[in-house]
Amino acid sequence: MYPQQFEGNYSGEVQLEYLPCVNYAMMHNHIAVFKFCTVMNMGDQDWSMVRIFIDGEYIKPAESVIEMIQAGQTLKVNTLKIIVNADKLIELTEGVDSSFKFSLTIDGEVAFEHEYPFYLMAFDQWTGVSVLPELLAAFVTPNHPLLSRVSINASEFLNQWTGNSALDEYQTQNPNRVRMQVAAIYEALRSEALVYATPPASFEAYGQRIRLVEKVLTEKLGTCMDLTLLFASCLEANGIHSLLVLLKGHIFVGAWLTNDVYSKVVGEDASFLLKGCADGMNEIVLVECTSLTSSEKVSFDDAVHIAENEVKQEGSFVLFVDVFRCRLDNIRPLPLRISNNGAWQVQNEGVEHENATKTVTQLSHFDLNFDDTKQTITKQIIWERKLLDFSLRNNLINTKVGRRVIPFISFDIDHLEDHLQAGENYQILPSPTKNKIEPDQYCIYDSSLYKSNLNQLVVSELQNKRIFSYLTDAELQNALKYVYRTSRISLEENGANSLFLTLGLLKWYETEKSEMPRFAPILLLPVEIIRRGGTSGYVIRTRDEDIILNITLVELLKQQYHVLFKGLDPLPKDESGVDVKLIFTIIRNSIRNLCGWDVLEESALGLFSFNKFVMWNDIHSNADKLKENKIIASLMENKIQWTDAETDSDARCIDKTCEPKDFAIPVDVDSSQMEAVVESGKGKSFVLHGPPGTGKSQTITNMIANALYKGKRVLFVAEKMAALSVVQSRLSKIGLAPFCLEMHSNKATKSHFLEQLQLAIDVIHIQSPAEFEKLSYELFERRRQLLDYIELLHKSDSSGFSLYECITNYLYIDGEELTVSDDKLERISRDKLSEIRESLTDIDTVFKVSGHPKGNPLSGLYLTDSSRESLDTVHYLLQRILSVMEEIVEAKKFFVEKIGIKVAPDNLDGYIWMGKTCKTLLSLKVLNKTLLDTVGNQERLEELKYISNCGKERDEVKAKLLKSFREEILQLNAFELRQGWENILQKWFLPRFFAKRSYLRRLRMYNQSIDESQIPEFLDSLETVLRQDKVVKDHSQELSDIFGFIARTDHEKWDDILNTLQNANILYQLFVEYSQKNEIFLTGLISDFTQNICADWNSFVLSYGNFFNKINDNVTALHDALNKFKKVCDAVIPNDNFEMELLPILRRWQDNFGKEKDWYQWCLRRSQLLDQKLDKAVDFIENGHTGTEAADAIFKGINHQKAMKAIDSDERLRLFNGMLYEEIISKYRRMTSDFQELTKKELYARLAGRIPSLTMEASANSEVGILKRNIANGGRGTSIRRIFDQIPTLLPKLCPCMLMSPISVAQYIDLNTEKFDLVIFDEASQMPTSEAVGAIARGNALVVVGDPKQMPPTSFFSSSQVDDDEAEFDDMESILDDCISLAIPSHYLTWHYRSKHESLITFSNMNYYDGKLFTFPSIDDRMSKVSVVHINGIYDKGRTRSNRAEALAIVGEIMRRLKDEDLSQRSIGVVSFSQVQKDLIENMLTDELSKYPELEQKVSQCDEPIFIKNIENVQGDERDVILFSVGYGPDSNGNVSMNFGPLNNRGGERRLNVAVSRARYEMIIYSTLRAEQIDLKHTKSKGVEGLKNFLAFAERGTVVFPTTAAGIKNKRNLVTLIANEIAERGYKVDTQVGSSHFKVDMAVVDPNNANKYILGILCDGENYYETKTTRDREIVQPSVLTMLHWNVMRVWSVDWYENKEKVIDRIMSKLDDIKHNGVEGCHLEQQFASNIKNNTFSINDESVVKQVNNCEAEYVFADITPVCDSSDIDTVISSASAVSRQLRDIIITEQPITNTLLYKRISHIWNLNRVTSRLQIMIDSLLTSNYYQDTLSDTIKIYWENANSSNNYISYRINSNRDILDIPIVEVMNAARYVVSQQISLPVEDLKRLTSQVLGFSRKGTNVDYSTGRAVSNLISRNVLIEKNGIIFSMETSS
């Protein structure tokens, strides 16, 4: 009801919702009549105690109380009920108008009161479909007693039909049993003799009056409604669930044949009923109830058929009511209404109806409980799915009858499939009806509507192999002709069949609200159509392929409607093929709950394909072949299926080891590109990451060129034509156009294809450049020269130092330097030096504790152990030394006084001398001047020692001798005794005997026991005693004078004498030592000494002996203490002047020993330094320097030493001069440019050389002949695919590189053909893997080029391709992503060239590429070329979703630029975030340009037109200036939504990256949005975060990482030193200019323009060395900087080291030159840039190679004069030597030659009439051992002069008039090889024929056939030729 307002004391509004009518059924089933009411307080005050009251005549009062309704509040009340008096309703026989009163009181005051009408309906009155249609189930009354009569009759019919009378509803679980029960009830009701009648009289506004069960059965009258409710009541009474099917103006009954129920009480989907009725489902049966009253024999099946057709009528169906479902929802049957007097019932006889049903059709019902085991989802299945087309233009999901689809009259189409699967031909006939049958409004035929008329004819003709269509004869012939032609073209062009017989159509709707149904074929049976003559016309038959399910439809339903077909993979089978009926049942069951959806059992012949059908078919039909490819196998298994043992190429290694000729690099290349080129040339598979502007296309060009150079075949694949065209253009520019076949699907026409092949076949052959290898070697040597310097400068030596570091470190540090020994220098490594520096620097901290050693009281006392025990020991020893020293100082004075010698030097040595002197004096028994003089004379000393030793020996021998002999023995003459004994020994035996006895008797007078054996010893002893005694006696007086009492005669004390000599000598040496040290005369010293000692030496010793002992002890104690002291500490003891220096030191140490703990800190560090041999550093520090100063000094010194050593060790460094080195660089650049041009020529020559020379006429059946024929006739009657298939060997020779789209690959290249060596994908980030696998399968190696940071694949039909539980099987976004996730090796392009200002790429580089791109700064790098223009506008979010203000600003800027002469030279691109904004800008610009025709013309004629694109499709484009429209921003209310369109989506950051990297020179952002307005708390999108950062970057207007001014950062490098020197001369210098890893080392700011640089200085520092290749260093970097208008010069480290002033002068001179000549001053790099050759390659000036047949040669005959007279065989045989000479001449001249021809030649020379066997035997004997017999010899021998002559023989000879058998088989083989080389491939018979022709045989006889056949067989057996399917081609060709 409409709301009603009230005013007064209270202002408000009331609205009621209630049903307009009420009947008994509603009350009986507790249907709520009153729904709710809303009360709104429209006043300013709150309402309290609000009462709502309802009352009326027939209803019970109801009330609801609300405590308060606040001002402005709306309250909904749903607690009120309208309850009508049931007794009143049951009595109503007619409807009654009534009303109820609604009142609202507030605080007891009536605020609103109103009467509301409603209608009370009669007891038997139904409310109708507009009000609760489900209440119709209440009129189904199964409990009426009269129904038992019907049930009994039904059981009789059931018993009659089945023999079982049981009405057992669903107990058997057999739908056909239930169907029989329904049929039985149908016949039982027909037996009731009912009559159809109009509805009963009714005067009501709502619904319809209904005759209830008892009234129909008694009165025998009923409408369709009454009969339906009666039938339904009977069904429910017998336990069968009924359905009430309402049509417009009609109703009939339905029944569930299975114990099932609908999901809702009311259904509005007619298709649900039809699906349930279908044979196979057999779940529902529909029965036309008016057939119960028909007098005609309308059987149950007829009634069913009528009902089904009525449902099929479009627009007639309204709804159906599931009675059992209503019961579950508590809608109960009406109770029986009994009259008081029983007058309610009228008994009529009715009209009898004959029973019409004799049998009931048994329908199939399939068990659909399939095994729910999940289908194995493979990558292949995923790829196939992704290629499917879900657009309505695809007739696989949106089929319409037309030229492409011929509809068949279809009955029992499951039998049609069975017939066709038998493989027979079937003729298609026109419609059998006289009048044309028209399809319905949706262009679809429903054969079931014509079943009664056409079923028998159609089914019978099917047995006769004829199929009827709905088309007329003329329509059918035209359609068949079109289908025939189109299917053939498709098969030829695409290699894929597109003709199918469809079985079944799915009727489906796009959305629940869609009114237009769509139709899609279900089963597709591949067929072929054949044209037959006569009356047969066209026939169809199945292809040798399996019937398939429409996978496009299956995936559409799965992905967009979540409909899954269980049990259809694989398709269920029956005995004849697939079980069509079961398939339809499964589908119907799956869609039963989708409104309007149904399966139509129709068939048709049609062409079915879609845009990517070729690729889909390529994958679908080649599953096993795909798996053979290692890359695809890896993608399928998510694991790499191959291993690569070879390491990746490194550009640095390539630069050092590889000659330029090892690769073909015709286009400029940097190191990252070089690595990719080399890797691809090796046949490796990898991913090539190519960020924006990194030269992907030029890298691809080089990869292709290098692969072709190495004899490989390349397939280049790109989705976009633009990407393909860029590479094709580059290939053309380097001269490779004739060898590259471009077949992108967008322009792949037959004429285009043949034109390209014509270009290849007509290619001009040129000479390979002679200087190619020479220049390669020279260039390699030049490169090595440059590398040598770099390596020498930067390569670290064994200790880790490089010369550059040493020079830098040395020059950087001011101040003193400390050096180390050469030995130490060799051992110092980089780490060691760092440790030394650190330890020295740390000492400054130690000094804060210990104090500096200089001036420290403990200085010189260096403790070695901090333990208490050690320190106590040091302290004790210190005290001991001090004590002893003091005593020694006192004793020293006494020593001087008594001895007369001053102790000198005054140090430990002097003290030790003093101690030794004292000790020696005490050891002397005698001391006098004579003794000292004597020992001073070495000769006299030795003489005395000799005399003393003689005396000692005399006494010892004498004492021994006298032990055995009497003393008198000494009186004997020893000489005589010796002579006597020796004479005895000379005598004869007997005299000797007696003489000995006599001699012994004499000696026994002195020794009675002596015997003969003791005589020699005795004689020796006696002689010794006598001899030594003589010596002593001769010097006895002398000894006595010197030694006194110890040398008395015969009482000498020889040991004392010797000791005295020894000690006197020691004393003398001490005096000598003293005199030498103190430089005084020794004689004077001895004289003074002897004067001081008294004459009596013994008295002197007795007087001062103790004192001398004490001195000695003290000295010993001092010595020992000092030794111990040095062991426990490292004390510095003065070398001299102990008394004046050491004593004070000792006392100072003693006095300050309490500070030893802190002092130890320095002692420890000092000890560590000394251990490192850093004595100089320690001394440096102890002389007053800090640790840091020492660290710098040692660091500087060592680096200086190492630098000098490095330079001196290599002549190249010793002679280095920067200017000379730069000249080498210049030559390298020129040679590189020259070699690049030579490479193009060499590459062209090689490729042209692989193309057949075509020096013979092409055979019609050879590949060359086939191609020439197609070129000549324009390919008439054939297709591109067919030509591809016909020239599989020739095509790779002509065009070893093919450039294609993925579709073209699948369309033209058979998967069985020879694989490409290399497949390259460009823009792989946008290529789905599903589209790529076909091309991958056609190659051995794969290079995937793309950028994962850029756009992923985009599709107009994007959808979630797989279920969540199948996600693990799904591929990534693109082939690039898939390969990256597979961990295929990756290479990276890292040098960025697009942006002419670094700021344009800085954001992307830092945010998306981690700063890994090498970008180049500009001369105006101090400014940013990314700016933002803030627009005062709004984002029209609610309406147009555009930003008009931004669009106006952008259009204005474009017009401004177009009108400016200078600005208009720069191309313009516009990027927007949305399609709407893009369209707005485009429309506004178009309108604006229309006002200026001259500008419009200017725009249309420019090289790069203005583009306006949205963020989704701008990838691949670039312009000089990019204008960026953000579009999004604050709306009219100032609110900013965080929805930024595609940026919010996954991958939004990739879209942003693409958009912001399109500009070359400038980018301007127009935005109403500011960075701070983007709130990242409300979104997690990376794309939105990126936008915020990008806007912030643009708003700052500065580069993210600003350059560093010289001197700000104290980084130790040569650059800073040079920059400081330049700065000191008045220039501002920035260092490390650039925001990427590449930096301009120094940039001098223009004094006249602070925003520009006038000079860039590049050094040979770390950046120079880290640059991988010489080309990068000397070509790429300088040329790019030159392009960016830099003036560049180099500074060389060695130059700066040796003479920095000279270098500074050069820099200043350069700056002066630039000032005078302007910023664009000439410099070396610009000179080089002008020499770079960028001209398109041309062969106009090249030497052309004339194409000749090098295999063919003229036959040369030996010049042998025939024998004049006729001869006989005997003469010949007798002339063997002459024959032998003739044979030799013939073989040498005519080799190879057969024996048969030799027979003939000799016979002719000797004028023999014929060749006889005797002649043959003779010749054979002469040939056997003298000549080489070819291995190809058989019965016919082939002879050569020798084996060497047969090597590499490739010729055949003509014009010899030789018989074919006389021609050596090797020549025939060579001729055959030549033919194959010219024809590429041809049939065997053609090869034999052409071979015989080139040999000069016009006819093909038996011998010719034998010989050529044998030659071909030999070549095949030797793997020279290959035979496949009767076609011959060369092994060289195939490889």
Give the key terms:
1935 residues; 8-stranded mixed beta sheet; 7-stranded parallel beta sheet; 14% strand; extended
Largest sheet: 8 strands, mixed
Mean pLDDT, as a whole number?
86
- Helical stretch count? 70
Strand percentage lies at: 5-15%
Radius of gyration: 61 Å
| Distance between the amino and carboxyl termini | 89 Å
Helical proportion, percent range: 40-55%
Uncertain segments: 342-349, 1355-1372, 1599-1610, 1719-1733
**Based on CA inertia axes, which overall geometry fits?**
extended
Beta strand count: 53
Oligomer: single chain
Helical/strand content category: alpha/beta
Task: Provide the fold topology.
Elements: E1 4-6, E2 12-18, E3 21-22, H1 24-28, E4 34-41, E5 47-56, E6 62-69, E7 74-77, H2 86-91, E8 96-106, E9 109-120, E10 125-126, H3 147-162, H4 175-190, E11 195-196, E12 208-209, H5 213-219, E13 221-222, H6 224-237, E14 242-247, E15 250-256, E16 266-267, H7 270-277, E17 284-287, H8 300-312, E18 317-322, H9 323-328, H10 379-386, E19 405-408, H11 413-421, E20 426-429, H12 451-463, E21 466-468, H13 473-494, E22 499-508, E23 518-531, E24 538-542, E25 548-549, H14 551-561, H15 580-591, E26 598-607, H16 613-620, H17 623-628, H18 630-637, H19 651-657, H20 671-681, E27 686-689, H21 696-709, E28 714-717, H22 721-733, E29 740-743, H23 750-761, H24 772-794, H25 803-812, H26 822-827, H27 830-850, E30 861-863, H28 868-899, H29 908-923, H30 929-936, H31 938-961, H32 974-986, H33 989-1003, H34 1015-1034, H35 1036-1043, H36 1054-1078, H37 1082-1092, H38 1097-1128, E31 1129-1131, H39 1138-1151, H40 1156-1171, H41 1175-1182, H42 1187-1208, H43 1211-1214, H44 1218-1250, H45 1263-1273, H46 1280-1286, H47 1290-1294, E32 1297-1300, H48 1302-1308, ...
